[in-house]
């Protein structure tokens, strides 16, 4: 370690000031620079001892969670993070029934109203174009807005917690990581694509495995290319070929975005039919380990469905998906503290 004048005991307040993202919106994970991402993770690590006990840093500050789509983990973890920081929460999880959106209030007006009550908004919405247009139109007439998932393409806070889990699991050097994102439908894998954008920003290598016709969206490809990302996309591999690819490419982490298609949508049945070639097992992971010498960590955005992967992985060192949930609270404590300021 090189010594500098800044060498001193760590201070959460100084760390938040150093990060410097107070008042910012978060729509895509690459809205954040490499330094800002690194500082977010350092702050999260400093919050880890308090993710169960809490500390009074955001007393009297109010978070609003407004979710136009179902959520458990994203909404609960942001709300838990705010409570752990000493703040308060206003929540609306069914706005098309129990808010003025049911009376045809525009999203623009809803956000302007909420901005009079709360200090920060976490928003989930199915139409990313509409949200992004309204945020631009609102300009300074709004509180900071954090995406809790917009449309099919962006879920930056999920990407951040996935990155933080990877950072903690493998030691912080993203440039030494290779991550495989495997799903039958890369076109609607917003959690995997957000993870990929963050990985690209930090210099990791990305291997995609998908199916023909459901490739990575152009908006994500454009961002990856702009970041000079090291990524490759393979299509229509068998599960045996995927296992071989993971071993040959030296993959450290296998990310399974899961099925985001709701029940009743014909696309869901199609997704699950294709899962046979993406069904990773304990035996398959052992074969990869024998070939590559690596214990590949398995990540999943959850919730999971029967048929997506072997649930016996739960009891092995490969399991990271439930650990991701634990890491989500200190990470989101860090995000809220940094965007609100202390």
Structure write-up:
- With 342 residues, this protein is α/β, with parallel strands linked by helices.
- It folds into two domains: 20-154 and 327-340, Rossmann fold, CATH 3.40.50; 156-324, 3-Layer(aba) Sandwich (Rossmann fold), CATH 3.40.50.
- It is 43% helix and 14% strand.
- The chain is built from 13 helices and nine strands.
- It has a five-stranded parallel beta sheet with strand order 7-6-5-8-9. The chain has a four-stranded parallel beta sheet with strand order 2-1-3-4, sandwiched between helices.
- The longest helix is centred in the C-terminal third of the chain and has 20 residues, at 321-340.
- It is globular.
- The mean pLDDT is 94.
Head-to-tail CA distance between termini:
29 Å
SSE string, helices as H and strands as E: HHEHEHHEHEHEHEHEHEHHEH
* Strand line-up of the largest beta sheet: 7-6-5-8-9
Q: Would you give the CATH topology of the largest domain?
A: Rossmann fold
The low-confidence parts are: none
CATH class of the largest domain: Alpha Beta
Note the total helix count.
13
CATH superfamily of the largest domain: Aspartate/ornithine carbamoyltransferase
What is Rg? 20 Å
CATH architecture of the largest domain: 3-Layer(aba) Sandwich
Total count of domains: 2
